[in-house]
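Q: Protein A?
A:
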Amino acid sequence: MQTTRVWDLPTRLFHWALAVCFVALVFTGQTGAFEWHFRLGYSVLTLLLFRLVWGCVGGHWSRFSSFVYRPSTILRYLRGEGNPLHSVGHNPLGFLSVLALLGFSLLQVFTGLFSDDEISSSGPLTKFVSGKWVSLASEYHADIGKIILIVLVLLHIAAILFYKFKKGHNLVASMLHGDKQLAEPVPPSRDDAASRTLALIVFLLCAGLVTALVRWAE
């Protein structure tokens, strides 16, 4: 067995920051703290934009190219015909989970930008669309999208528990320190000062883009 860096620091920080924001968004949405709800929403949009870019230029196992699988590969994995490399980063089912979480999170943030609670808070882009669109976006954001994301997160947690107690894979630990014990040599993810500096620059650019969008809309 050898220790291999699988999850670089930027990916780990993204993961835990998104988890914290998700919990806080549910809380602020339910308690009516909409000023903070919007701030957290902008933070999530920044994180998601960062992850999309980092999925192209980040560490080896954080790149989409390392875990985007064909339907045939997913079917073979479900039949128990998986490749040993599938246990390093995201396996085929993990790919579906990532795809669903990123996709529906982006949709949730997008609809939030066009939502209006008809009391005191409205998204910054509501003025640019019709009332019908605002109504549809608000309904999806407040009811449908929220439930979908909660279900996806619960399924994600259930999968983590399954791999922990049924297969003996501690996915949480590897997402904390970034390393996995592997029997075969595989390419490690780059995680040095240069890559972390690049991640910081990408994150700041994404934050600047979101800030510029909000200020332009207001």
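Q: Protein B?
A:
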Amino acid sequence: MFSRPSERQFEQTVRAYSADLYRYAYWLCHDRFVAEDLVQQTFERAWKHWRDLHDMACVKSWLITILRREHARLYQRMRLDTVDDDPETLDLPSCVQADSQLELEQMVEALPLAYREPLLLQTLGGYSCTEIAAMLGTSVGAVMTRLTRARHALRAHLAALEQTRIPK
């Protein structure tokens, strides 16, 4: 027979794993405030199901799983605002040059199809990671990974372009 975890054990668990969960959440989202919210939501969800936990030995992996799912839910709820205006009619910042639209299109086109497809579905189509995963026949995690890699590749390319444009 197993014993159900107590409130005291939950408090000890919060103290023991808060820092680890925060580090993992920050690694996922790279935003201090979002990471704090994710940890809070993780412990809130864990508290709701605390009495259902049967094995205290696997509490850390259980909490990490909850945190990962809360992070995924964050992006499922997020909807990007899309604009149907012609790019030439938009008021762009002065730092954006006329050829930047073409450069951006070329950068996106240079991405591997596995990265380009989910990126365009999310940014242009406004689809959630779950919807994209269903369309592409893959997992939500794979979609999130591909989106992250696509953004990193675009940032790296933009940084390289900025380096070449800096006047000496």
